[in-house]
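Box 3.1. Reading complex inputs
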Amino acid sequence: MNLHARVLDALGTVFDPELDEPVTTLGFVGSCVVDEDGDVSVLLRLPTPQCAPNFAFLMAADAQAAIARVPGVRHVRVELEDHFTGREINAAVAGGEAFADAFPGETEGELDALRALFQRKALLAREGRLLWSVPDPATARLRDLAGPDAVRCRALRRALGIDAGDEAPAFVTGDGTPLSADDVARFARMASLTALSLETNGGMCRDLLRVRYPDAGREGVAA
Amino acid sequence: MYEKDGKQYFIFDSHLHFWDASPANWKPGAEEYAKGWIECFHAYMGLGPPDTHWTLERFYKYGVEDLERDVFGAAGTDYAVLQSTYLKEWYTTGFNDIERNAQALERFPDKVFVNARFDPREGEAGMEQFIADVEKYKPRGVKLYTAEWYQGSRGWKMTDDAAKPFFDKCVELGIKNVHIHKGPTIWPLDKDAFDITDVDHVATDYNGDLNFVVEHVGLPRIEDFCFMATQEPNVYAGLAVVLGGLMHARPNFFAKVMGELLFWVGEDKMLYGSDYAIWEPKWQIDGLLDWELPDRPEYADYPGLDEDGKRKILGLNAAKLYGVEVPANLRGNVPADEPASEESAVGVAG
């Protein structure tokens, strides 16, 4: 695999924290240029110039970090295109600074709590899609779940510090509490609404991106 | 009054704009923000049917004659609430401030309500202006945009201490309806700006005095909105964006979102809003009147929506909140005390 392909693979591990989808499949990678010295330049583009600065920062910083870890990469430059706080975010990401450095005096903390909040939503949504793939959700184990949602559930659980082993309960709330038998109906209702919310937002983001960048109709990476 | 297939409907559009976002109104030094904002709105128009799209030039600024044609003419709107959105750090005279909205009030005094606004960060001066606006324009509601930038601050929360005197003043002045629009920024920036926990708090504090209409049903946090609205008797769902942004572009998501709203919030607490001029109203009204919950297994858990329910959403609920009488022949079979009633959702126990 050449360096360009490995860089794209690395970008595929960067998730929109709010939508729980890779920035590559969302069409957020506007361009990715890798030169012969291993210098990488990536432009990220978002559905609107007014997308939330905190999520935009996470995607840019995560992309920067993911590409920097790819062997053979010498220098990485990730920039947000046409964003209303792009100047602040691009400068901070280029300098390896934190979110609070990008917006001095405008934050109370870093973005870990925000990220965890949305990992919990994402976990609930994924679990909602898997709930009826097993005969009894309250007694199922993680090894009983299969497919991409199951793989992502494990990753989200590890990120949240929740047991992701084969024998762990298949379904847990955001704080790791196993689903109990008498809570299945309510859990199912909330999980399916949360899944619908993420899917609807993802659909709207794709539609807006396509209006803004007509070439974004297809999945993958432009240019 | 709107007529379709030989039936007549009362239309109360609870959320419209009347903006001037033309380049002449872009504030020097803030042109990129002013341009980005209106281009963003214009992109949303792209989610509606192609034959309703406007050019960006036309979209920049429109006049009372456009409102007359699109809102009161083609869509037969009986009442329209023009919401104020200031954004004065980006637009010299504001995006659509109350004075601009008042041009429409002057032209259509029997059909238009203008809503005031306040921003707690403006302090005493803001309070004086708010009181003066209320005396002058007699609004029955306010529109609050929490992501507005103001002197280095990028937003506020409804639970901020400085907001309380303004809500108290609404109660004192007889203003009943608080429309809330969340945006992408808020202080502090590291928190989720779309979070609606602050609405939950003030809705509880002012239950009995104020109604809270969460515009675009809290999108992109529709799950938080539903979990909250099902528990708060005075929280209502503003359908702007659900109709305009999903009905044409994503009909399956539209059906499911409507199903969830009917389940958690209920047809008595859902209010039609066109969000004009982001979208023209006629196709949205037609679309809702034609819409039925799909007869497929994955929709079986949702309540349906019959003609009387559609009448409530398109007009009767908002008419109740705004104290407007609806002619008996436009009420269908809906009893006078039913629209906007506090307990209509199916919901599930907390």
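In summary: Residues 42 and 183 of chain A are 45 Å apart (CA to CA).
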